Amino acid sequence: MRIITGVAKGIKLKVPKGLDVRPTADRVKESIFNILANLELQVDRNAIIGAKVLDLFTGTGNLGLEALSRGADHALFVDHSMVSLATTKENINHANLSKVSEVHRGDSLKTLDKLTQSGRSFTLIFVDPPYNQGLVNAVLQKLDSTDVVENGGIIVVEYSKHEQLTADWQHLKLVRNERYGETLVAFLTRYYEITSGGS
């Protein structure tokens, strides 16, 4: 597993042994970032360049670090596991991206509440929870009901083919869904204009 391109191109990332971490495969990650680079947003902003990134269930920091390497401004990495965060910190330092990185230990849903209370928001959010535990829809419901996602912000969600997105959202819109073997990757955006009944 490595950083594919950008200022930290080629840096190999550490994956802890014996830990239930499922890092995004390089081929899937490359596809994700190719899609992000070509998404046509309804805001005057590139999805990656200058992004404020939130990497939930970060595991190794793989996705957030790739975004930083490609020009994101800042990334907050969140996980409840001390081992995962220690690995993430090591990968951040190895990639020489510590000045634009922040690491937080905590439950992802509770962290979203804290971020809301503190008024923090992000333009690019990665959600890669353990599969088949109902976490994907719980996180999306939270992102739908809070202001953590900025207007026109993008959410990238990895989930199992055995899970189904509820799509019971008021503010989120699914713009693309891809399958890579057992893994599905959904791309969603949030537009506050969707709030008022509309068609």
Fold topology:
Elements (H helix, E strand, L loop, with lengths): L25 H13 L13 E5 L5 H8 L4 E6 L2 H13 L6 E5 L2 H10 L4 E6 L7 H11 L3 E12 L11 E9 L2 E8 L9
Parallel strand pairs: 1-2, 1-4, 2-3, 4-5
Antiparallel strand pairs: 5-7, 6-7
Describe this structure in words.
The protein is of the alpha/beta class. It has one domain (26-195): Rossmann fold (3-Layer(aba) Sandwich). The protein is 28% helix and 26% strand. It contains five helices and seven strands; from the N terminus they run H-E-H-E-H-E-H-E-H-E-E-E. Strand 6 and strand 7 (183-190) form a beta hairpin. It is globular. The N and C termini lie far apart (44 Å). Mean pLDDT is 89; it is low at 194-199.
Helix content: 25-40%
**What percentage of amino acids are in beta strands?**
25-35%
Structural class: alpha/beta
Strands of the widest sheet, in order across it, are: 3-2-1-4-5-7-6
Number of structural domains: 1
Mean pLDDT over the full residue set: 89
Tell me the series of helices and strands, N- to C-terminal: HEHEHEHEHEEE
Q: How does the overall form come out from the CA principal axes? A: globular
Structural Rg: 16 Å
Which regions have little confidence, pLDDT < 50, spanning 5+ residues? 194-199
Q: Might you state the CATH topology name?
A: Rossmann fold
Helical stretch tally: 5
Largest sheet descriptor: 7 strands, mixed
State the CATH architecture: 3-Layer(aba) Sandwich
